[in-house]
Amino acid sequence: MKLYHTLEKLECLQGDTLPVFRVAVSGIDDLSGTSMLLILEQNSRIILQKTCTLDSEQQFCVQLTSGETAGLIGEYLLHFRLTGTDGLIYRKITGTLTVTQITQGG
User: Fold this and answer.
1) Which long-range contacts link 26-35 to residues 24+ away (Cβ below 8 Å)?
2) pLDDT for 3-33, tens place per residue?
3) How many alpha carbons fall within 13 Å on the CB side of residue 83?
4) Do 24 and 34 form a contact (C-beta atoms < 8 A)?
5) DSSP 57-85
6) In the chain, where the domains are located
7) What does the longest C-alpha to C-alpha distance in the chain come to?
8) How far is Cα 16 from Cα 12, in angstroms, rounded to an integer?
9) Which helix (H) or strand (E) is 54 found in, with range?
10) What is the dihedral of CA 19, 25, 26, 30, to 10 degrees?
11) CB 35 within 8 A of CB 51
12) Which of 10, 64, 76, 83 could form a disulfide with 18, with the two C-beta atoms 3.0–4.6 Å apart?
């Protein structure tokens, strides 16, 4: 049984601003009182947590900026964690993000 969706493997360079992630949640008509976090982990350690905002279309949105990716290098587990109004936590989407170091040169 698959309990969450998976993302295709994502790749970027250090310092890239990534496109906005938009996550729609099915099965919940009213998302007020819920929250969603984007979490990046490496070696079972949380590296970054970012709160998603709820837009007018009832989708959670978040974007990783150049400042946030500038200090990353290697492969990360990326997942979106929904906290329901009942306090229960659900992992909704998971995938990997590989960040490559920019080489200096001319």
Assistant:
1) 28/84, 31/58, 31/60, 33/85, 34/82, 34/83, 34/84, 34/85, 35/82, 35/83
2) 567 888 999 999 999 999 999 888 777 888 9
3) 9
4) no
5) TSEEEE---HHHHTT--EEEEEEEEEE-T
6) 5-100
7) 55
8) 6
9) strand 53-54
10) -140
11) yes
12) 64
Pairing state between β 59-62 and 53-54: antiparallel
Tokens of 5: 């969706």
Tokens (6 digits) for 65: 């900026």
Q: What would the pLDDT profile of 27-86 be if each residue is shown by its tens digit?
A: 777 888 999 999 999 999 999 999 999 999 999 999 999 999 999 999 999 999 999 989
Alpha carbon 103 to chain centroid, angstroms: 26
Determine the CATH number of domain 5-100. Answer: 2.60.40.10
